Automatic annotation (TrEMBL):
Top-level lineage group: Bacteria
Magnesium listed as a keyword: yes
PANTHER family to which the protein is assigned, alphabetical: 5-AMINO-6-(5-PHOSPHO-D-RIBITYLAMINO)URACIL PHOSPHATASE YIGB, N-ACYLNEURAMINATE-9-PHOSPHATASE
Keywords in alphabetical order: Hydrolase, Magnesium
Protein name, entry field: HAD family hydrolase
Keyword match Transferase: no
InterPro entries named in the record: HAD-like_hydrolase, HAD-like_sf, HAD-SF_hydro_IA, HAD_sf
GO molecular function, one term: hydrolase activity
Highest classification ranks of the organism: Bacteria, Pseudomonadati, Pseudomonadota, Gammaproteobacteria, Oceanospirillales
Record-listed E.C. numbers: 3.1.3.-
Entry cofactors: Mg(2+)
Amino acid sequence: MIKALTFDLDDTLWDNGPVMVRTEQGHYDWLDQQAGHAKRFPPETYLERRLAAADRYPLRRGDFTFLRRTALFEILSEHGLDNAEANRLADEAIDYMLTLRHEVTLFEESLPLLNDLKHHYGLAAITNGNVDIHRILDTPLFDCVINAGEWLAPKPDARTFLAAMARLGTAPSETIHVGDSWTEDALPALRLGMHVAWIDRKKTGPAFSHPRLHTMTHVRELPDVIERITAARA
Ligand SMILES: [Mg+2]
């Protein structure tokens, strides 16, 4: 019997591509207006510095806010700002980045779907991203939220899935994970014995079949998947 669902967020409940383009450019442009640094340190350098920071701090490689802040502070310092000023501007740029990051538009089906599911199932959110779902939803819909990157165990680390199920009080065979990434959602959840509703939006994922794997192109197909899983187990 299915008792709970765990959800990935980005590109599962909303289209995250445009959000990240706006976020990436928006906060770096804003910072350039304050510091005039972007000519010397173009966006590509900012990305390189983030990757270098992830190498330098392997345990925090999934904490994207930390990596961004580290890179920004470094760049502003090299640009000649003193520590206090570099810290202040890095903090403000990160605040603005997070504001832009949360300007997401849920798929029109996402909220009604979650609202309906929460009456019947335990619900958890597991994201590797730095989105705070409470800044997006007016009412709490999830019994458990795990920002796995900031918790030092980004997916596909099994601990994030296990922590969610421990909190929900369900076994893997009673839980469906819903997500769009083959390597970070579908595969680790399958290995743990969970059911998987995998969103392969462009149908470009690996051809792989498994009795617990259910492929969809959009989260709106989830009720059908739940019905199929339930019927198969009846
Ligand atoms: Mg995703």
